[in-house]
Amino acid sequence: MHILVTNDDGVTAPGLLALVQEIRKLDAEVTVLAPDHNWSASGHVKTMHRPMRVSETVLADGSQAWKSDGAPSDCVALALMGVLPVKYDLVVSGINPNANIGHDVTYSGTVTAAMEAAIGGVPGVAVSLDAPEHHVGFLDFSAAASIARRIIARLLEIDYFGEKASVLNINVPYMPEDEFKGILITRQGLRIYRDELVKRLDPRGRPYYWIGGEAPTGMHEDGTDFGALKDGYVSITPLTLDLTDHQAAEAMQGLDLGLGGV
Predict the structure, then answer these.
(1) Number of domains in the chain
(2) 20 to 30 Å CA-CA from 243: which of 21, 24, 88, 167?
(3) Which domain holds residue 171?
(4) What's the rounded Cα separation, in Å, for the pair 82 and 98?
């Protein structure tokens, strides 16, 4: 068993170190390849129009790691395509300091790194911590790292992944591990964004823009990732890369679109 660990906050992020230290407790070889800087909210990126570099680095605990100037999904693609002579059995991405729930999964570099693993035929697990928005100072990733390791260990024990290139999105409430209410298998909830467009002028009078606004919230519904977190549960949401609305596709089969034989 060989596990690749990556993230979207950069190779020096404390959430990555906490995750790596726990994953190393598993009966597996562990390789770290992560971006050399923060790619938060980068979405699913594939760099194809410039060269990328990969170089060796050292984590804060003195252990070996690798960094790339590519995006999180680039790091996974580079690894799976052989930038290092290793065959990977699992990719674990995180720990993101804020939750990735609902529609966040399409923005999240943490989650899309796990999706890139699935595209490459390897199971991917994304791990995020529901820390307070705009938190300043030390963040304790220990509980999230520990529960992620325990979940992954159990899934490996029961051979959950098997031959499936599945994606699991794990979100962990920000509290001590002994205060978790439990673990729930959830669906994506409804994320509510309050984005605002901020227009400003540079010193030469030319307009530029920021996307600002308040931190997103969500609909507190039973069975959802948002609801589970707010109730003190660890949320595990299985994701699929098939974005087809099968119900709508079936309903459209009988539509007369008035296009003749086109």
Answers:
(1) 1
(2) 88
(3) 2-193+219-243
(4) 31
